[in-house]
Design goal:
The protein is of the alpha/beta class and 488 residues long. The protein has 19 helices and 13 strands. The chain folds into three domains: 4-61 and 132-222 and 442-470, Glycogen Phosphorylase B (Rossmann fold); 65-124; 234-433, 3-Layer(aba) Sandwich (Rossmann fold), CATH 3.40.50.2000. Mean pLDDT is 80; it is low at 71-112.
Length: 488
């Protein structure tokens, strides 16, 4: 009898990358794989459903208690993460005599107390709320040997499957969706049994912040990596015509983020630089984030009369409605066809990427495109400054080809440096060579890595290779490999 795997797709942003990577194709060769998707948040027509033993919908009930619980968790956690990272550095910069209990209390335990207490409180409340009966009924019907979920952050989508699985003693493997899901989205009141992390950086923070043991962390890479490594299928001229961009000009690709500052203000600066000849022979392609929050005190993009700024045609009507309705652009109510092959085409004709800290910086690394990371916000949007202070963002400060702009006064200089860096094609290989720290790569496909992790969990000792790389099997000091005799 084949063992059963239940895969849970929580939202559209989680479903797209795993579906486009055909992430569960290898599992389907060896197991009966069932798919459960959140009916309220996933457009199933956009998901690859072939090969699954059965596809089922979960009509998740809305629990309003969770709204303030999620806010409380993320509010406390986001502000504590910077203190956590700074404290961690401070402790290990001290000599041994300074590392006494007082320093540890002031610089480590105290900053972490607030969000760890919040996590304990949330676990208590989650226990009081109980399990979701609809999802529990599906799990009881299938009786899976393993549940695979998507780690988006602290939400009902993450927590409900774990609660149900733990009560039934079913192991859980969660796959990291985005680059910042592990350190920035709140502490999980319930821990998954196993985690598939993007890379070494995510694995480290899963251990330090979320408290997940090394032996239960698998290095998976990111689901869209293989799509981005493939060269575009269309010539650059055709791609430019599709994007309505002028031929012969260098493209500065500005990728927006969901929690924005004043992106239109940044576009004004870039327009000014190009118009004054400070960035000669350049144009800007602007792609707003598909799940963008409405931002107060930001000028109306459509009231600007730009000469050198071009809006991504795919986002034009969606973005216009977002401005007119002053609403959050959500993928839960409105379908948006997202394609990483489309992103690959954009990056293939881009000289540089300009963006606040976001997943697009990682995508640019895959494509060997230099980035200018906008690491500042204006006073009107100071609440978003925490985005640039997270400990995990420090990785981008060390990568060759990533130039950090900390004020509007140095944005022009950073753009020029990035453009100069892009002129040497060999440097694209330098950028890609640093990718492994954030997104693991090897000769296997993403689907194969998932299959190998599941095989390890169900058929061997369930310990990951990442664990063996960091903890030796034998303590040579204790001579654990010395036996009394070869004879019984």
């Amino acid at each position: 009898m084949e063992k059963k795997i239940l895969v849970f797709l929580p939202t559209n942003p989680a479903a797209y990358p795993f579906s486009q990577a055909n992430a569960f194709s290898e599992l389907q060769k060896h197991f009966d794989v069932y798919l459960v998707y959140n009916k309220r948040a996933v457009f199933i027509d956009d998901v690859r459903t072939e090969g699954f033993t059965r596809v089922m919908a979960w009509d998740q009930p809305i629990k309003r208690k969770r709204s303030w619980m999620m806010f409380l968790n993320m509010w406390g956690h986001r502000r504590a993460t910077k203190s956590f990272g700074d404290s961690f550095k401070r402790i290990f910069q001290m000599d041994m005599e300074q590392r006494n209990w007082l320093y540890r209390f002031l610089f480590f335990y105290l900053p972490g107390f607030s969000y760890r207490w919040t996590s304990f409180l949330l676990q208590f409340i989650e226990q009081w709320m109980g399990e979701d009966k609809t999802l529990a009924k599906l799990v009881d019907e299938i009786k899976p040997n393993l549940i695979i979920g998507m780690l988006c952050g602290y939400s009902a989508y993450d927590i409900d499957p774990i609660k149900i699985a733990q009560k039934r003693k079913i192991p859980t493997l969660y796959l990291q969706v985005g680059w910042d899901n592990i350190p920035h989205r709140g502490l999980l009141p319930y821990k998954m049994d196993y985690l598939g992390a993007w890379g070494y950086q995510s694995a480290m923070f899963a251990e330090l912040i979320q408290g997940i043991p090394k032996r239960r962390i698998f290095l998976m890479g990111c689901p869209f990596g293989e799509v981005l490594r493939e060269p575009p299928k269309r010539p650059s001229e055709e791609i430019r015509r599709t994007l309505q961009l002028p031929l012969g000009k260098k493209v500065l690709f500005f990728a927006g983020v969901s929690h924005v500052g004043n992106e239109v203000g940044l576009l004004d600066l870039l327009e000014k630089f190009i118009e004054e000849g400070k960035l000669p022979n350049c144009c800007v392609l602007y792609r707003p984030h598909p799940y963008r929050q409405f931002t107060k005190n930001e000028p109306n993009f459509f009231e600007r009369h730009y000469k050198h700024i071009y809006l991504d045609p795919q986002m034009k009507e969606r973005f216009r409605r977002h401005i007119e309705e002053k609403a959050y652009m959500t993928g839960h109510q409105e379908r948006l066809e997202r394609s990483y092959a489309y992103n690959r085409e954009i990056l293939s004709i881009s000289s540089i990427l300009i963006a606040p800290i976001s997943t697009f910086v990682a995508e640019a690394l895959y494509c060997g495109v230099p980035s200018v990371v906008v690491s500042f916000v204006g006073k009107d949007h100071a609440k978003y400054s925490i985005r640039y202070d997270m400990a995990t963002n420090q990785f981008y400060h060390a990568v060759p080809g990533v130039f950090n702009s900390f004020s509007p006064s140095d944005l022009l200089a950073k753009c020029r440096q990035a453009l100069s860096f892009s002129e040497n094609e060999h440097r694209a290989h330098i950028i890609r060579s640093h990718l492994n720290s954030i997104a693991y790569q090897d000769e296997f496909s993403f689907a194969q890595r998932i299959d190998y992790a599941v095989q390890s969990i169900l058929n061997t000792n369930g310990q990951s290779l990442y664990h063996y790389l960091h903890d030796p099997l034998i303590d040579v000091e204790k001579k654990e490999n010395v036996v009394e005799s070869y004879l019984s």
